[in-house]
Amino acid sequence: MKIIIHRGTQQIGGCVTEIRTDSTRIFIDMGSELPDENGKAAVETLSVEGVTHGVKNCDAVFFTHYHGDHIGMLPRILPGIPLYMGEASKEIYLVLQKRLKSAAQTAIEAINTFNALDKITIGDITVTPLRTDHSAYDAYMFLIESGGKKVLHTGDFRTHGFCGKGTVPMLGHYAQNVDVLITEGTMLSRNNSTPVTEHELQRKAAVWLKKYKYVFLICSSTNIDRLAAFNSATPRGKYFLCDSYQHEVLKVAKKYGEPHTPLYAFDKMTIYGNNLDEKIEKFGFCMPVRANTWFSSIMKKYKQAHNPECLVVYSMWDGYLKQPGSKLEALMNGFQNVETLHTSGHAARQAIIDVCSVVAPKQAIIPIHSENPAGLRGLGLPFNIRLLKDGEAYKL
Q1: 35 vs 73, residue with greater confidence
Q2: Which of 114, 244, 263, 280 could join 118 via S-S bond, C-beta 3.0 to 4.6 A?
Q3: pTM of the prediction?
């Protein structure tokens, strides 16, 4: 097998990984680059022969999850190339793209789906999806096998989420005798502090939801674990309010998640309407909000009439607030009570160490999705750390 990281060896996001044999060529993720520090989207310059242009020469593209830096180039993939994605992940992504009126809806609807541990054979390559914990629901690692060689691609992962404690034991069972580990290293360029767990975040949310009658949660509409934490923390008698779009997203999470854990039951979620005004003012609520005029008008009404009883919780990466033209700051302006409560969707350094140690790759570890890939060498791991450049081939 041969590995080529077309993009992602020196940056966070925009991930595109090729794995090929003499007869089969597959890709893991086709991501767009993240916006710069000013919120400006980069002009897409990556072009891959046989995948985004020219004569079709690709047997399949697998997506680890639905975040744009892993799937954003989907519309540029040549027609007829088979696409694969987790079943729930596809449904959530489709709901989002319908909301955005994306031209990619037809391509998304045609995506093939899989579940954890399904073995998918593409030519002489076998791909096994391994469910992992991330801020995107239904995210996967991929175990790729061919000709007696094994590669594990982690995608984005963490171990401090609700399902994170199962990651290392799962890899100990299903990802042994691996030759090459391709691991995300987002946090290698950030501080070395221990991240807040989703369980700790949920407990803090419960305290605030008892203290404040009206809680507005600024949160990504597809961060299912964060939404589940606040839904679960909402006391009985209070409403968990959302708009029809958010309700549709959470219905998908409920459909796939509730059979496994009550965390994803979303039993309190209710679509907000003016007919509820009297009840929600009396009993209180938690409402996930986004930066648009509809939510702004609701928040303005409560800010003017019930400011001391309101709390606004900012639960996203703080970098979004610093971007010029950000509308998120305006959502909080004028409220007496504002708190930040967030945790990363990415693996802390100890989690990276734990995953590398349990997989124990025989040949090499290749860091991607990092601005500091060389930082992996500073973790004291007894493995060969191979730092690639974008476009450089690595042969097993």
Answers
A1: 73
A2: 114
A3: 0.96
